[in-house]
Design goal:
The chain has 35 helices and 18 strands. By secondary structure, the chain is of the alpha/beta class. It has four domains: 348 residues, ABC transporter transmembrane region fold (Up-down Bundle), CATH 1.20.1560.10; 197 residues, P-loop containing nucleotide triphosphate hydrolases (Rossmann fold), CATH 3.40.50.300; 78 residues, no CATH class; 145 residues, no CATH class. Strand 2 and strand 3 form a beta hairpin. Helix 6 runs antiparallel to helix 7 and helix 19 packs across helix 35. It comes from Microvirga aerilata.
Length: 905
C-alpha cells in the first residue's frame, strides 16, 4: 500500500478530482453574485436608490463591476440592461436571486453526488487491493494475523477512509473558495468588518485543531480496542466448545465486560473533549455577528456604511461559518483518517506479503518433473533450536517419497517446504534449474497440491468444495446483457477490480478429462467412491431435494419408482412397513400438523410452533371447529408431561422421546396447570397458542397417549381441504402440498420415494425399508442421480456439518481432481483407522504412478511401498532409494449394490 493516503488518492483518482474541481471553480461567479444581490434588493429596489434622481425607471440586469475607493475606485460596464419600474426591479432582482439559489443548489448537488461516487469507487478499489494482499499473506504471516481483525479492517475500518476520499481534495477547494469568496465580498463592502471576520477565522483555525489532537489519540485507542474486541469475540466463538467443556462462561463474560468498560471509558473521554471543542467553536462563530452588529451598526450610524451593505455583509457572513466549520471538520477528519490509514498499512505491511509472481508465458507452466535437489536447507525452531541443519537431497521426479518422522517436526516442515506452504528457511530447493520459491503462484496452485491434518472447507456444497481447485481462471464468458456487461467492465477498470464475472465459465473441464458438467460429476463420484465416501454421498442424496422444473425427467422416474416401491411392499407382504400418504385418510405415523397441512412447509411461519401462531392456519382451525378440541388435547398433553417429567433432570432421554415440552418450559406449563386447577378456565390468548402447539407435534403411533379416536381423525382429514383452500386463497406460498402423481420439491428424495411414513410399530422397519429403497434405486438406475444430489449437500461453516473423516475425504478428493504433478500428504489420513489408512495409501500410490507423491509417515512400517525414503536425524536429511518397492494393490471398489445395502443397513 502507498504510505501516503493523499498520494494513494491522487494516483488513482486525479482525473475525477480535477473534473470536480473545475466545476467548483465554475460555480464561484454565481456564488459571488448571489451574495451581492441582497444589497441590490435593499438599496436599489426597497430604499429606491436606483430612482433617487426622479427617474421612473431603472436599469435591470445591467452588468458592471465596481471596485471600492480604497482600491482606487471606478467601474466597468458590461451590459446596460433593461429599463423597469420600482416593483418590476424588486421582483426582477428577487427572481434573479432565486435563480442563483437554484443554480448554486444544482452545483452543490452535482459536486456532492460526484464526490460520493468518487469515494465509493475508491473505497471499492481500496477494499479490493487489501483483499488482494490478503491472498498474498505468507504462511508465516497467516499464523500471526487474526482473520476476524483483517475482515474488520476491510469491512469497517476503511469505510471512513472511503468516505473521506471524495472530500480529500474537492472539499477544501470547494469550501475554501466559498469562504474566500464570502470574505472578499465582506472586505469589498467594508475593510474593517472584513479584518474582524478574518481575525476570528484565524483564531478558530489556530485553537480548534490544537484542541482536537487529543481526540485523534483517543480515536486511535478506540479503534484498536474495538478491533481487539472483535478479535476476542471471534476467538471465543471458534473455541466455544472448550468454553462449554470447562465451564468458563463467567470468565469469558467478565473479560468481555472489562473490554466493553474500557471501550466505554474511551468513548466517554471522546464525548467530553468533542463537545467542549464544538461549544468553543460555536461561541467563536457567534462572536463575529456581535462585532458586525455593534461595529457595523456604528459605521451605518456615521454614514460610512449603508444599510444595504450591512445586510449584505451579515448575509455573506452567514455563508462563512458553515464552510469554515466544515473545513475544520475536514481537517479533523483528515488527521483521523490518516491515523486509520497508517494502521491499515501497518497491518498489511510489506514483510507480511509474499512476492507477486505470475506466469509470464506457457514455458513457465511446465510439468514439475526432473531432478529435485535440496541444498543446505536450514530451519530454525521458535526457540532458536535448529530443526533441520544443513540438510540436502537429490532424486528424480516423478517418484513416491516417504517422509519418515522421527517424532519431531522435521518431516512436516519439509512437507510444507515442498508444498510451498513455508518460506522461512535458508538454502534452496530446485526442480531441474527452477527455484521452488520463485515459481509463480499460478504454477504452484495448478501443479502442487497439499493435504494437511486440518482440512479447510468453505461454506457451500460438497461439489463446490471439490471443484475449488479447478477455478483458476475463466474459460469462457457467460451470456450477459451487453449494456450491463459494458457498465460492469467499465466500473471494474476504473476501480482496479477484475473484469471477469463470477457468472463466467470457470471450471477447466479439459484439465480433468471431462467435456461437461455431467462427466465432471462422474469423475468426482468415482473418486469419492474410491476414497470410501460413496455410501455417505448416497445417503446425502436420499436426504437431498430436487427441483422438478430443472430435472423433469428425473422427477417422472421418481414417481414411477414410488409406484413400483409401493407395489413391492404389497407383493412382498411388507405393506405394514410404510403407511402411505392418502388425501382421504389420516396417517397415524405422521404428526397432526402434517395431517392437517398434507404437505411440507417451505417457510418458517408454517414450521414447528410458529404454525400455531399463523393467522391463516388459525382461521382454518376456527372454521373447522377444531381449535377448542386441539387446545383441550394440548391441556391433556401438558398434564401428562408434567407427571412424566416430575423430578427428572434436564437432558433425560424422555425429553427427546416426548419432544412436546422442553425442560425450560415446564415451569410455564406448570403455572398454567395450577391456574386451571384453581378454576381459572379463561385462558389467555398466548396460553391457548402455547397449548395448541403441543398436539400439532403429536404422533399417535409413537407417543401412544390415546388422544386420537376415529372421529377426531376424520375431522382432521375433513379440515385438511379447508386448510389448503384458505392457504391457496391467501396466496400463501409457505406449504407445498402432497400430490401422488408428482414430486414434492420441498420434501427429501427419500420421502418422495416412500410418499408416506415408516411405521413405528414394526420392528426393524427402517433397515428393511432402506434395503427396499436400495433395490428400487438399482432397478430404475437412479444411483448416479441420487449421488449427484448428494454432491449438493451443504458442508456448513468450515465443514462443521461433516464428520472429521468426511472432511478429510473431501479435502483429499479436491487435491486429486485437479491432477497435480506433486501431491504432499501431511497428516491428511489421521482421521481414519489403520485399515482405512492403509487402503487410502495404496489408492494414492496407484493413482500417482505417473506423478509425484510425498507423504509424511509416523514410522517406517509402510515406507517400503515408496520409491524414496527420507529420514530426519539430528538435523540432517538422510535419503535412500527403496531397493524394490512393494507391489501396489488396487484399491477396493465394492459393487454399488453391496455398498448401498450394507451402509444403509
Amino acid at each position: 500500500m502507498e504510505k501516503s493516503l493523499f498520494r494513494y488518492i491522487w494516483t488513482h483518482s486525479k482525473r475525477d478530482q480535477l473534473i470536480v474541481c473545475a466545476v467548483v471553480l465554475a460555480s464561484l461567479p454565481f456564488y459571488f453574485m448571489s451574495l451581492d444581490l441582497p444589497r441590490q434588493i435593499v438599496n436599489q429596489a426597497i430604499q429606491g436608490e436606483a430612482f433617487r434622481d426622479g427617474n421612473a425607471t431603472a436599469p435591470f440586469l445591467n452588468l458592471d463591476f465596481a471596485w471600492p475607493d480604497w482600491l482606487g475606485g471606478g467601474s466597468f460596464e458590461i451590459f446596460e440592461g433593461f429599463q423597469v419600474g420600482r416593483v418590476g426591479l424588486l421582483f426582477g432582482l428577487s427572481s434573479v436571486f432565486l435563480l442563483f439559489v437554484v443554480i448554486n443548489g444544482g452545483f452543490k448537488y452535482w459536486i456532492n453526488v460526484s464526490k460520493g461516487i468518487l469515494g465509493e469507487r475508491m473505497l471499492r478499489r481500496m477494499r479490493f487491493d487489501l483483499f488482494s494482499m490478503v491472498l498474498r499473506f505468507t504462511p508465516e504471516a497467516l499464523r500471526t494475523v487474526k482473520s476476524s481483525e483483517t475482515a474488520t479492517i476491510i469491512k469497517d475500518e476503511v469505510e471512513p477512509i472511503g468516505g473521506f476520499i471524495g472530500d480529500a481534495f474537492i472539499t477544501p477547494i470547494f469550501l475554501g473558495m466559498q469562504a474566500i469568496t464570502a470574505l472578499a465580498f465582506i472586505m469589498l463592502q467594508n475593510i474593517w468588518l472584513g479584518m474582524i471576520a478574518l481575525a476570528v477565522i484565524a483564531v478558530q483555525f489556530t485553537i480548534i485543531p490544537r484542541l482536537r489532537r487529543e481526540l485523534l489519540r483517543l480515536g486511535k485507542q478506540r479503534q484498536l480496542a474495538s478491533r481487539q474486541l472483535a478479535g476476542r469475540i471471534a476467538e471465543v466463538l471458534d473455541g466455544i466448545e472448550v468454553v462449554h467443556v470447562h465451564n468458563a462462561h463467567s470468565w469469558e463474560r467478565a473479560e468481555i465486560g472489562q473490554r466493553l468498560f474500557t471501550l466505554f471509558t474511551i468513548r466517554l473521554k471522546i464525548y467530553n473533549r468533542k463537545f467542549f471543542v464544538k461549544s468553543l467553536n460555536n461561541f467563536l462563530a457567534q462572536l463575529t455577528p456581535f462585532f458586525f452588529y455593534a461595529i457595523g451598526g456604528y459605521f451605518a450610524l456615521r454614514g460610512t456604511l449603508d444599510i444595504g451593505q450591512l445586510v449584505a455583509v451579515i448575509g455573506a457572513y452567514r455563508e462563512l461559518p458553515p464552510p469554515l466549520k466544515e473545513l475544520i471538520d475536514w481537517d479533523q477528519q483528515r488527521l483521523d483518517v490518516q491515523v486509520k490509514y497508517d494502521q491499515v498499512t501497518q497491518h498489511f505491511a510489506e514483510e507480511r506479503l509474499g512476492p507477486l509472481l505470475e506466469a509470464r508465458d506457457a514455458e513457465e507452466d511446465q510439468p514439475l518433473t526432473g531432478s529435485l535437489v535440496g541444498e543446505d536447507i536450514r530451519v530454525a525452531g521458535p526457540h532458536g533450536d535448529m530443526i533441520i541443519e544443513g540438510g540436502g537431497f537429490q532424486f528424480e521426479l516423478p517418484a513416491s517419497v516417504a517422509l519418515i518422522s522421527n517424532g519431531g517436526a522435521a518431516a512436516s516442515i519439509m512437507a510444507r517446504i515442498l508444498a510451498r506452504r513455508m518460506q522461512e528457511f535458508s538454502g534452496q530447493v530446485r526442480i531441474n534449474e527452477r527455484d521452488l520459491i520463485q515459481l509463480p503462484a499460478s504454477v504452484v496452485g495448478r501443479r502442487i497440491a497439499y493435504a494437511g491434518v486440518d482440512p479447510i472447507l468453505f461454506p457451500g456444497s460438497i461439489r463446490e468444495n471439490l471443484i475449488y481447485g479447478l477455478r483458476s481462471k475463466p474459460i469462457s464468458r457467460s451470456a450477459e446483457d451487453k449494456r450491463e456487461m459494458d457498465r460492469r467492465i467499465a466500473e471494474a477498470i476504473r476501480t482496479g477490480n477484475p473484469i471477469e464475472s463470477i457468472a463466467d465459465q470457470w471450471i477447466d473441464y479439459e484439465r480433468v478429462g471431462a467435456e461437461n458438467e455431467g462427466e465432471l460429476d462422474r469423475i468426482l463420484l468415482d473418486l469419492l467412491n474410491r476414497v470410501g465416501m460413496g455410501d455417505t454421498i448416497y445417503l446425502f442424496g436420499l436426504a437431498g431435494r430436487i427441483d422438478p422444473e430443472r430435472h423433469p425427467a428425473l422427477a417422472e422416474r421418481l414417481v414411477e419408482a414410488r409406484q413400483r416401491l409401493r407395489e413391492t411392499f404389497q407383493s412382498n407382504g411388507m405393506s405394514d412397513l410404510v403407511e402411505p400418504f392418502d388425501p382421504g385418510r389420516y396417517n397415524t405415523q405422521a404428526t397432526i400438523a402434517e395431517n392437517l397441512l398434507f404437505g411440507v412447509p417451505v417457510s418458517d411461519e408454517f414450521r414447528g410452533r410458529n404454525l400455531a401462531e399463523n393467522a391463516q392456519f388459525r382461521s382454518a382451525m376456527d372454521r373447522a371447529g377444531l381449535t377448542d378440541d386441539l387446545v383441550r388435547m394440548g391441556l391433556q398433553i401438558a398434564e401428562t408431561m408434567a407427571e412424566i417429567f416430575e423430578g427428572l433432570p434436564p437432558g433425560h432421554s424422555l425429553f427427546e422421546q416426548f419432544s412436546f415440552i422442553g425442560a425450560d418450559e415446564l415451569t410455564e406449563f406448570g403455572a398454567m396447570l395450577r391456574r386451571q386447577a384453581r378454576g381459572d378456565t379463561n385462558l389467555k390468548r398466548e396460553d391457548r397458542t402455547r397449548l395448541l402447539s403441543l398436539p400439532l407435534a403429536y404422533i399417535e403411533a409413537r407417543h401412544r397417549l390415546g388422544l386420537l379416536d376415529d372421529r377426531m381423525m376424520s375431522r382432521i382429514v375433513e379440515a385438511r381441504g379447508l386448510v389448503r383452500e384458505i392457504l391457496e386463497k391467501t396466496d400463501a406460498a409457505g406449504v407445498e402440498f402432497y400430490d401422488p402423481d408428482r414430486v414434492c420439491a420441498a420434501a427429501p428424495l427419500r420421502d418422495n420415494l416412500l410418499f408416506g411414513r415408516i411405521s413405528y410399530q414394526v420392528a426393524n422397519s427402517r433397515v428393511r425399508v432402506a434395503e427396499a429403497i436400495a433395490t428400487i434405486v438399482r432397478e430404475f438406475d437412479l444411483l448416479e442421480d441420487v449421488e449427484r444430489i448428494g454432491l449438493d449437500h451443504q458442508v456448513g461453516t468450515a465443514g462443521r456439518l461433516l464428520s472429521a473423516q468426511e472432511r478429510a475425504s473431501v479435502n483429499l478428493v479436491r487435491c486429486l481432481v485437479k491432477r497435480p504433478d506433486i501431491l504432499v500428504i501431511d497428516g491428511a489420513l489421521a482421521p481414519f483407522d489403520e485399515a482405512r489408512s492403509q487402503q487410502m495409501l495404496q489408492l494414492l500410490l496407484g493413482l500417482f504412478e505417473q506423478q509425484s507423491l510425498f507423504m509424511v509417515l509416523p514410522n517406517d512400517r509402510q515406507a517400503n511401498d515408496f520409491d524414496v525414503q527420507m529420514r530426519f536425524r539430528d538435523g540432517q536429511i538422510i535419503t535412500q532409494k527403496t531397493a524394490e518397492p512393494a507391489p501396489r494393490a488396487s484399491s477396493p471398489e465394492p459393487e454399488a449394490a453391496q455398498r448401498i445395502a450394507g451402509e444403509v443397513a
